[in-house]
Structures are given as C-alpha cells and as structure tokens.
Amino acid sequence: MSDTNSVNGIYPQTPAMFDATYQPDQLIAGVYPRVTDNVTLASGNGIVARGTALGLVTATGKYIPSASAATDGSQTPVAILADTYDTTSGDVVGAGVYLTGEFNENAVTMGAGWTATTLKSAFRPNNIYLKSAVSAADPT
Known about the structure:
By secondary structure, the chain is mainly β. 6% of the residues lie in helices and 28% in strands. A 5-stranded antiparallel beta sheet has the order 1-7-5-3-4, with helices on one face. Strands 2-6 form a two-stranded antiparallel sheet. The chain is globular.
C-alpha cells in the first residue's frame, strides 16, 4: 500500500492547479478514537509505507518497522505509520503515526516474523486493534 502522490507526507506546493487522485486504502477499520503523534523514523529503511507496524529502538528513540525477532526494543510494535515516508536520505523527523485506533489487518504492513494473529495480540496493550472484518481489495 503505497501512495505514489506524496513523499514524506507532503504534497508539493504549486501555484495555480494541482491534481491529486484519492485512492482509499482501507487502513482505518472502525471508529475507536485514533490518537496521533509525530515521531522520528530512523534512516536506512527505504520507503516505509503508510500502515506499517512500527517499533521503538530503545537506544536511539527512533522508530523502525517492527520485526518480531529484533532485540533492540523494536520487537514491540507501538504505532502504525500514518503516511508514506522515504528514509533513504536520512532520518525523517515529524513522521505521523497512529498510537491508538482500529485498523484493517489486511492493510497493515507487517515486519518479519509477524502474522495477523501475533501482531493483533502485541498491539492490544496499546489500544491498537486489528480487525479482519473489512477487505483491503482494490474496489475498482
């Protein structure tokens, strides 16, 4: 699930006209309150797509895609990325994340070692709920 119209969460500012195509990704799956925050994404993870499960690296305080076998703190998923960001050129400061909410497990990007069942359980203490009642299939 990547948004090719935006990089680092910002549409370019252009005078006159600007065209953006709305493409629903079905990431949001319910009305449970979504709490957002801005965090720093660590460099070296390439393009990180909206909906990626993130963990916090304890030593640096930066977020990276969560992998269940990690041992640096990021093995505990704590947030879902709210937009697509490019980390190839360096850290991304101010990346938007969801800290709570209901999300479509079919639209969440899971890191190595995670399954929908294990990620669902790992997110629960943070009031992030993964639901399978909706489809992430392209409606067109």
